């Protein structure tokens, strides 16, 4: 955890990321001790040195008082193109093994108009889809483990039986709908 940024301007801060080539994700969070001023938030940028040693800045996203933390995937960004950034006039020292995370304090309206590099987002849909798929598999395997043939069934008026093909049909329908739209269940 790095809690002491280097202030490079009144509204700009950087954190060094030594050995950044071995880092896959970066978590940016506010400590809760000093909030952003009213109507302000922080754009989060990733900066790494390209092959010639020049700084390449990419917008990852933002943090605000209402969204005080974010996780960004940086492993795929190290060969991408740079984007427009507010750190341009600053000549920040770059070494081949050190990258930086830059925070630029800006108006919330400005943050809403910015477009982060798409591959930096850690999608909650992907983890949700993965969880749902594993849950479905677990449920189907669990329910199937109780399957018996009609010959094996012993009459018991207090128990209800669901045919295994009904569970399989539900399982296949749910998987199909999840593949088409991972958030279908919200409608």
TrEMBL record:
Main location: cytoplasm
Keyword set, alphabetical order: Cytoplasm, Nucleus, Protein transport, Transport
Keyword S-adenosyl-L-methionine: no
GO CC entries: cytosol; nucleus
Lineage: superkingdom: Eukaryota
Tagged with keyword Transport: yes
Domain called Hikeshi-like N-terminal: residue spans: 1-120
InterPro entries: Hikeshi-like_C (IPR048364), Hikeshi-like_N (IPR008493), OPI10 (IPR031318)
GO MF entry, a single one: nuclear import signal receptor activity
Residues forming coiled coils: none
Subcellular localization, as worded in the UniProt entry: Cytoplasm; Cytoplasm, Cytosol; Nucleus
Pfam families (alphabetical): Hikeshi-like_C, Hikeshi-like_N
All residue ranges annotated as the Hikeshi-like C-terminal domain in the record: 126-186
Biological process per Gene Ontology, one example term: cellular response to heat
Family named by the database record: Belongs to the OPI10 family.
Subunit architecture: Forms an asymmetric homodimer; required for binding and nuclear import of HSP70 proteins. Interacts with ATP-bound HSP70 proteins.
Main function: Acts as a specific nuclear import carrier for HSP70 proteins following heat-shock stress: acts by mediating the nucleoporin-dependent translocation of ATP-bound HSP70 proteins into the nucleus. HSP70 proteins import is required to protect cells from heat shock damages. Does not translocate ADP-bound HSP70 proteins into the nucleus.
Protein name: Protein Hikeshi
